[in-house]
């Protein structure tokens, strides 16, 4: 596809090492009429480091994508060539761009991708955990109850799970994942391709051992479900009786039981308690 054609180019940028910006990416970024960046300051620093001279840089992020997508598509229809980059890695993966690409496709405009760095694939490739099939989850919800419901949707899905998380929420998210998913392989990857790149290889049931003072961008890889027998209802009710002796509200008891009953969610245990 010629660079002069009215089109949208989705361009992967380095996760941390500027040397990972491909020659083709440089060519497209310099030829585009406008480069849309999630953070123009960060993009400007990258372009300076790599010697890429862009014609025009415009802000395009989660908070303005819906408002700006139409005007950019209209510009493309007039012959403007756009390039889209995120803060790092492949755009659209938990980054803005989906609405723009979808609208461009609906309008019959050409869209092409300059592939390159991707945090989910990089973490998966180095984790030593089964790479296929895998499911990318983006960012989990923030609240514990929402997290548990979120992971419950993937409890019986026999794939490796990959997602992003922020350092200040990692400990609670891993705890929620373990409570719902049970024992599995775990890799916590941080600062991918950077000087302090680190892969913490452990198991989900040992999530409390993962340092809580990790810095940088974090990608989590959780292995597929293992052959662990799910306790029956009678066994769970026995656990409920044991935990009830320690006191607490029904939901608190259900949470404690859940730690001892792999494959059961808090909602399921709570429902069983109400029936029984």
TrEMBL record:
Residues 8-205 form the Tetrapyrrole methylase domain. One of its GO terms (molecular function) is rRNA (cytosine-2'-O-)-methyltransferase activity. Its main location: cytoplasm. The keyword Kinase does not apply. It is found in: Cytoplasm. PANTHER family: RIBOSOMAL RNA SMALL SUBUNIT METHYLTRANSFERASE I. This is Ribosomal RNA small subunit methyltransferase I. It comes from Desulfovibrio psychrotolerans.
């Amino acid at each position: 596809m010629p660079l002069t054609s009215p089109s949208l180019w989705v361009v992967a940028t380095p996760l941390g090492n500027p040397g990972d910006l491909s020659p083709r990416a440089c060519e497209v970024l310099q030829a585009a009429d406008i480069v849309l960046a999630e953070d123009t300051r960060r993009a400007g620093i990258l372009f300076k480091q790599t010697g890429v001279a862009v014609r025009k840089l415009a802000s395009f992020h989660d908070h303005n994508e819906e408002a700006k997508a139409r005007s950019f598509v209209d510009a493309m229809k007039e012959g403007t060539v756009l390039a889209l980059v995120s803060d790092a890695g492949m755009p659209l993966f938990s980054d803005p761009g989906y609405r723009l690409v979808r609208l461009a496709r609906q309008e019959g405009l050409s869209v092409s991708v300059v592939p390159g760095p991707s945090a989910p694939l990089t973490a998966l490739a180095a984790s030593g955990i089964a790479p296929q099939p895998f499911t990318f989850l983006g960012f989990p919800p923030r609240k514990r109850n929402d997290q548990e419901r979120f992971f419950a949707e993937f409890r019986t899905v026999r794939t490796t799970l990959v997602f992003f998380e922020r350092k200040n929420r990692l400990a609670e998210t891993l705890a929620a994942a373990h409570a719902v998913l049970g024992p599995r392989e775990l890799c916590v990857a941080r600062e991918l391709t950077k000087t302090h790149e680190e892969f913490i290889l452990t198991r989900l049931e040992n999530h409390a051992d993962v340092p809580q003072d990790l810095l940088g961008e974090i990608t989590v890889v959780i292995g597929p479900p293992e052959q662990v027998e799910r306790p029956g209802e009678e066994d769970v009710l026995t656990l409920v009786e044991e935990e009830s002796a320690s006191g607490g509200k029904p939901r608190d008891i259900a949470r404690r039981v859940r730690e001892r009953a792999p494959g059961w969610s808090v909602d399921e245990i709570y429902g069983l308690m109400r029936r029984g």
